[in-house]
Amino acid sequence: MKSFIIIVLILAVAAGGGWGYWYQTHKEEVKYETGTVTRGDVTQVVTATGQLNPVLNVTVGSQISGNILKLYADYNSLVKKNQVVAELDPAPYTATVHMADANVAYAKAALELAQLTANRKQDLVKEHAAAQADLDTALANLHQAQATLLIQQASLETAQINLDHCTITSPVNGMVISRSVDVGETVAASLNAPVLFTIANDLSKMQIDASVAEGDVGELQTGQAVNFNVDAYPYRTFHGIVKQVRNSPVTVQNVVTYDTVVSVNNDDLKLKPGMTASLGVVIAQRFNVLKIPNAALRFRPPDSPRKLVPVVPGTPPPGGQSSPAPRIKHDASHTIYVLPQNATKPVPVQVHLGITDGIYTEVLDGLHDNDVVVDALLSANPTGSGPQPAGMRRPF
Question: Would you say 379 and 390 are in contact if contact means Cβ atoms under 8 Å apart?
Fold first, then answer.
């Protein structure tokens, strides 16, 4: 029994000694995720989404009601200005024209009779064979006949116009992108003219109507370059130019946006109306500049005070996503931790930063090529609290 107790004591002393040796050799071990200061290009963009539309989109309707007799255009048809695209049944309007024409003829005959009567009354009054009242009545009838003729002529013109509207023509050169009626269908023109066709004036020149958040609209100016993608061509980048930033706000669920119009060249006709575009407006660009990963802006050693240090707006928060609209932040001092060669602890360095693309940030001064900056703490055991998971980001 005594020998068993002695053996247990020996094993406990040996385990304690082993643990003490391991603790002494590992308690100061700290591992960091690092990045290298490199040179390259940094492009700062404002991101948004929008819809591709023709520059001029014309809806062709009917001013009169009737049955569709013939269609001369279909989807994707190329049409010229004043080309006939549809025809309504003209029979009822032709009959109306004939009736109006007969009413004009009747009014002319009545006017001739009234003119003759007025002339006869004037002669009789001169010879004192008729009363002046009879002449006044004859002149009034003459004037009424003249007015009636004008009314009937206007009715004839209206009937002729309606008959002419049975033939529907294209108001512009372009392509039919939508047809809303078929032959034999009845269109009813009431307060709103029924839409028969939608014609895009020129699909080689298109525009994107993008919604830009109010926090980003101050960065936009006409003439800025725009890069965008559409789902139909995921591996191709298209280009455009900011044409207009409209001042009219659009509020949806308390979110204010502004319509930004981007001019797009579509000579190959790959882009189609209605496509959704994910675009980035280039608001600043730097070439061959020093840059560091944005993760280095957020790193703080575990033994440093957790003090909020200003970071370039647009860099993602710890564990968060990148801001859709990074902004330029000049003349602000930031603390970056570098790891000199053969050093075991990072050293703080004050730097000035330029623009950011959400992943990398331009360094104006304070660092040099190939400097090693600390991005994150991979493992540490100075206090016996155990290692941290790889990639953990310390908050400010």
Answer: yes
